[in-house]
Protein: NADH:flavin oxidoreductase/NADH oxidase N-terminal domain-containing protein
Amino acid sequence: MSPAITKSHDFYQSQANPSPGTAIEPPASAIAQGFAQGPNPNPLPKAFQPLTIRNYTIKNRIWVSPMCTYSSEDGYATDFHLAHYSQYAMHGAGLIMVEATGVLPEGRITPNCLGIWKDEHVENLSRVVNHAHKYGAVMGIQLGHSGRKGSTIPLHLYGTRDTLHASDSEGGWPNNVYGPSPITYDSQHYTPREMTIADIANVQQAFADAAVRADKAGFDVIELHGAHGYLIYEFLSPLSNHRTDNYGGSFDNRVRFLVEIIRKIRQVWPQEKPLFVRVSATDWVEGGWTVDDTVALAKIISAEGVDLIDCSTAGNDPRQKIPLAPGFQVPFATAVKEQVPEILTGAVGMITKPSQVSEITEEDKADVVFAAREFLRNPSFVLSTAHELGVYIKWANQYERGRVKTKYSFN
Structure:
């Protein structure tokens, strides 16, 4: 078992009354905070039952979804990232997935996105990982490449100008945007050049090199970003992949790019560490990628060493018609879970209430829940869910006095 996930209740008892002015944090080997303990319901609600994947036991099934923050310069993690991800760790998240991180400079979505294309990025990422580990969080990183949707402006600048293009003068790379085919996403994005076989090999190797750096930084989990119309997904969908070589045309050819990346990563990523893939389970466009394709892909990548498929949707074609509603993407995770039991599933999409988390996990609609915007609104989403479900979990000592007292409180 990783040192980041060793349970230790004794530490919290011994540090109950620290000296005045002493900042108490659990050591890197402690993970008591966040595990359900004490006079709890038996059995525990599934949302708070630990989940073991390879050598890692994750203390609950409410996880932080990767969310771009556009707060980096030249790919480096900053103090913002340290504070941002630490808050989720200190408030009980079981697993925290760091935002889409470019495996190449042109693999970023914007000039302000995180990167992991050079060894110098490792040190700052390590600070983020090490601090989160002190509070018992398992740390993941989403490795990605933006493909034809790269060299754009950060989200907070949307609506302030007529185009999403990031120019050379703004740190963009308009002459180095590429994809499987020279098909523009829309008029707001640059037209990509079609990748050569050498380009494909270069990007695949960049993913493998990034995995080595992620390991050096101390990350426990890698998630490959194969969703939302970025490069991996552009190869998967027939709407964005019109190639006529071994990487286009048939289903087997279109999934080849991803499968080969997985194989390269599994050669360098420690066998005891989990590997996830996020996909868009449907394009929501006729003639595009479908849930049946997702199920077929899940069977293939499970056999290649992928432990969990994180089921999102859309983002690859502006013609998409998305039926937005709470939990609207959950059925796709359920379809995979029912038809491919050998792989774990993650549900995402407008999951904002403890009752939704309970329903998804108790009814086996997915193995875990990835929440996104709700964590931005409420970094204590795990703690508030535990309170609503009547589960006692240990809070960080520094915050314990703020607990709403219930019959499950120890004090």
